[in-house]
Amino acid sequence: DVGVWLPDGRLKIIDRKKNIFKLSQGEYVAPEKIELVIKGSVYVNQPFVYGDSLHSVLVGIVVPEEAELKTLAASLGVAGSFEELCANAKVVVDAVQKDIVAVSKKGGLYGFETVRALSLHPEPFTVENDLMTPTFKLKRNEVKKAFLKEIDARRSVSW
């Protein structure tokens, strides 16, 4: 585990060493810390944050809260099933992205820790689809493999 000493002498665990990665500009990123912060968005149910040393942008794969996403879509004048909203509604994805950026700032994340490319996925990460362990932790490598095309596609259209 990786941690930091707090001013009052307590140790705060940030992430596991194996999960931390470096972005192209040299910053080290702890994805679990970021995922915990962006779960503060009402639209986020299950987040996955990915980055690597070849790119400077973090990509987020998010399983949204269905009811909140449908309410957001209706307020934006967008209709469709949950799956359609996740796949095709750019205005909805952009609104969720803006909320994640706001939550990230409020949560004290640095600019390089902010998810700048986002994809919404309607199917939850589960043990059955082999994206979580029996103790309900993300299998980061499996999620990365499952969403590699999405990750690459989002990097090219990030803002």
UniProtKB/TrEMBL annotation:
Organism for this UniProt entry: Hucho hucho
Gene Ontology CC: endoplasmic reticulum; membrane
Molecular-function annotations in GO: long-chain fatty acid-CoA ligase activity
Protein name as catalogued: AMP-dependent synthetase/ligase domain-containing protein
UniProt keyword terms in alphabetical order: Ligase
Keyword tRNA processing: no
Keyword Ligase: yes
